[in-house]
Amino acid sequence: MGREELAVAFDAFERAGWRGRSEAYKQGVAVLTARLIEPVLDEARVGAGSRVLDVGCGPGGVSAAALARGAEVTAADAEPEMVAATARRLPGVRVEHAILPVLPFGDGEFDAAVGNLVINHVGDPRAAVRELRRVVRPGGRVALTSWYYPKMRATVVFDEAVAAVGVPRPADVPEKSPFQAYGTPESFAGLLQDAGYTEVRARTLEWEHTVDPEEWWTAILTGTARTAAVIARQNPATIERVKAAYHAILAPHLTEDGRATLPAAALLTSATR
Ligand SMILES: C[S@@+](CC[C@H](N)C(=O)[O-])C[C@H]1O[C@@H](n2cnc3c(N)ncnc32)[C@H](O)[C@@H]1O
Question: Ligand 1 center to residue 170 CA distance, Å?
């Protein structure tokens, strides 16, 4: 498959993969992604009166924090259910159904655009960053995050469990995100530089995510797109084997109260139009 075909297939998978997951995502994975909200808004220099676009808003955590800073928020997501969840959570906020890399906004309409864990879900990251540059004003900021896989364990333990059991990946589930080519601070920065941005900054953030192992298993199986598809589509016996492998992988991370503390890491890149 060429890059364009891969992008189309990846986007199609993502559209189907997020359907029906907004509530589960909010309860589980959003707690992990919340750690990045304030750093993203800081990098985008969002403050009182900023006109900010929260793209791939999910259930609205970034938008809520931007509102708390006094910003004028527009939220957008590719999944209608996420759009509805954010609209319910933040009455009065403009929330649009929109799919990167095509946004229904005018040139320079925003002072800042932020996307927390979204660029790794788009089929064509280069087109996406160009589109985000288009909708911010000259001098405006864009800030984006993705997982930093060399240091990330909180979600990667599921991939490790799948690998340990040797589960075959369903043919329609993409092996990796097209963004994986930009998975270091240098290459993520290069993606933005090549799109014409200036003042590009890229760094990694590391923290610990503490989970109840059973709740985290359910959270990932019900609130993610790709990992959930690989595991949940297996037969019950195979799912049980993956779960046993997951518990074995978590064992060294368990604390006295039965919870597990897992390393988490993200890339945060920001730039000026
Ligand atoms: C991992 S969630 C992140 C949600 C939220 N930003 C947060 O901080 O938790 C990814 C979100 O991006 C959305 N998404 C995926 N591909 C997208 C695209 N091409 N354009 C806009 N949103 C997209 C998904 O529907 C989902 O809500």
Answer: 22
Say which CATH number the domain at 34 has.
Answer: 3.40.50.150
Q: Range of 132's domain?
A: 3-151+176-209+266-272
CA 79 / ligand 1 centre spacing (Å): 8
pLDDT per position as a tens digit, 137-156: 999 999 999 999 999 999 99
Q: Which of 22, 27, 77 to mutate to test ligand 1, by most ligand atoms within 8 A of the CB atom? A: 77
Buried b (16+ CB within 10 A) or exposed e, 117-154: bbbbbbbbbbebbbbbbbbbeeebbbbbbbbbbeebbb
Q: Which atom of ligand 1 is nearest to the CA of 60?
A: 5
Count of structural domains within the chain: 1
Pocket of ligand 1 (CB under 6 A): 14, 18, 30, 33, 55-58, 61-62, 77-79, 82, 99-100, 116-118, 121-122
Question: Is 77 within a domain?
Answer: yes
Average of per-residue pLDDT across 104-125: 97
Q: Is 185 exposed, middle or buried (0-12, 13-18, 19+ CB in 10 A)?
A: middle
On whether the pTM is more than 0.85, the answer is: yes
